[in-house]
Design goal:
Beta Polymerase, domain 2; 4 domains; Hydrophobic Seed Protein; alpha+beta
């Protein structure tokens, strides 16, 4: 990223690393998306990086993908008018300060220069240290002109474990959050996925219950149990948000196991680990899943002629792994016939 910044500076322009990458760097979170802003006009950016990326002239931006990093190089700009949550009247700005004022939240307004010096023109460090999500400028205006910022504010609150500032909370309390009805369902789904895959999805459900705003997110839920990943959360929710057929199958299979109220050895053969671990979380039966995985490994050595459900009739759960090994050992050494009747008698004697 320093190479890109230095190339712009070497051509006589200002250039700074800005936004979410700097925020995540300061918190200690790895990130692959790097925003660079500059006073170089888009035509000059295209000339400097010719053939290395793709230009989006209407947004004065140029995108480069290199070694798993995505760089977005953007001319300083002002966004004067929005339509359908996107800027439709954009003009070039003269300096970094003006560019930073168009951004959503203060914690996304950090900049780093080519010498590695941290630049904080809008008190971002204050809010980062206080763990506060605060809108840049007028809260009502910013959240109204681009309603996706409402979702982003809540998402950052959950994924970073930060508090929403009073102005954002007042915006939610005033029921202006109904503006979320103007956000495409696909975008809602994308943001909720990030929340559900974070370490703090409970904050999200707390906020929805506190302000009674679930309907604006197109979801219904009761009590949510933390799970292996987002699909375990989605399996506890009623929603009309869009999913692919593959995702619907994952969610449906989690529900099937949960509705059976237990995990069986056959489930390990029929379902993916993603399905099994989510179901185990919901059934609060992670220990049994681990035990069944161990048994399945043993079962692959010799096909023992007994259903695992029969084992549970004669053996305590905590002993089943060792007993299964004992049965297998006796069969392999010729002391026990590999048929269900003989094995059941052996278990009864134990």
């Amino acid at each position: 990223m320093k190479d890109i910044v230095n190339e712009l500076i070497g051509n006589g322009y200002e250039a700074y690393i800005v936004g979410g990458y700097v925020r995540d760097y300061l918190i200690g979170i790895p990130s692959n998306d790097i925003d660079i802003c500059t006073n170089a006009p888009i035509n000059k950016i295209m000339k400097i990086f010719k053939g290395r990326g793709q230009a989006f002239k209407e947004y004065f931006s140029y995108h480069i993908k290199d070694d798993n990093y995505i760089y977005t190089i953007t001319t300083y700009r002002k966004e004067n008018k929005y339509k359908k949550n996107k800027p439709i009247d954009i003009e070039v700005a003269s300096d970094l300060y003006t560019d930073l004022q168009r951004r959503d939240f203060t914690i996304n307004t950090f900049a780093i220069d080519h010498n590695g010096k941290l630049i904080d023109l809008l008190n971002a460090k204050r809010d980062l240290n206080s763990k506060i999500i605060r809108v840049v400028g007028d809260t009502d205006k910013k959240l109204t002109e681009d309603k996706t910022r409402i979702l982003r504010a809540i998402r950052f609150s959950c994924t970073l474990d930060f508090e929403l500032d009073n102005e954002i909370l007042n915006f939610i309390k005033s029921k202006k959050i109904c503006l979320l009805n103007e956000v495409p369902k696909e975008y809602k789904r994308k943001e909720l996925d990030k929340i559900f895959d974070s370490s703090n999805p409970n904050r999200f459900f707390y906020l929805l219950k506190r302000f009674d705003i679930s309907k604006y997110f197109n979801i219904k839920f009761d009590n949510i149990i933390p799970t292996y990943n987002k699909y375990g959360i989605w399996s506890q929710i009623e929603t009309d948000l869009p999913f692919s057929n593959k995702e619907l199958e994952i969610i449906s299979n989690i529900k099937k196991i949960v509705n059976n109220k237990d995990i069986y050895l056959i489930d390990l053969k029929n379902y993916s680990n993603e399905v099994l671990y989510n179901a185990a979380n919901l059934l609060k039966n992670e220990k049994k899943l681990k035990m069944l995985i161990d048994i399945l490994k043993l079962h692959s050595i010799i096909d023992i002629d007994i259903k695992i459900s029969e084992f549970f009739k004669y053996v305590n759960v905590q002993n089943i792994k060792s007993v299964y090994k004992l049965v297998e050992k006796n069969i392999l050494e010729g002391y026990l016939q590999n048929n269900e009747g003989e094995i059941i008698e052996f278990l009864k004697e134990l």
